[in-house]
Amino acid sequence: MKDEPSYKNRKVITIGVVSELTGLTERQIRYYEERKLIFPERLARGNRKYSFSDVEKLIEIANKREEGVRTYEIRQEMIKETKKENDKKARNKMLRGQINARFGIQKD
Questions:
Q1: Burial class (CB in 10 A: 0-12, 13-18, 19+), 24
Q2: Cystine design at 28: which of 24, 56, 76, 104 (Cβ 3.0–4.6 Å)?
Q3: Where are the transmembrane segments (predicted)?
């Protein structure tokens, strides 16, 4: 059960529903995928499935675009955020390892 994604990250929503929820056209949604801003799951027949997290991200993207932010800038910001998140995870893992080593805690 732990390996299952949370309901927010499960890819179950069709592009038509995402379009209705976000107010974006299907073409706009596909464009944001082309620009590597979102990553829907692709089924065997080519259909796309989105998650609630994808819907939230699309709304954020649309708001930034309305403010005049270019898709390139949005992508660069996403890359920085992902790097920062990965660095934080690595730092936390290292600290846990150091604490475990210091107090003689063995991992099974």
A1: buried
A2: 24
A3: none
The rounded distance, in Å, linking the Cα atoms of 108 and 90 is: 20
Asked whether the beta carbons of 58 and 25 are under 8 A apart, the reply is: no
* Residue 76: CB atoms within 10 Å: 11
21 burial type by CB count under 10 A (0-12 exposed, 13-18 middle, 19+ buried)? middle
Distance CA 59, CA 1 (A): 30
Q: Does the pTM exceed 0.90?
A: no
Instruction: Retrieve residue 27's tokens.
Output: 């073409």
The C-alpha atoms of residue 55 and residue 42 are separated, in whole angstroms, by: 16
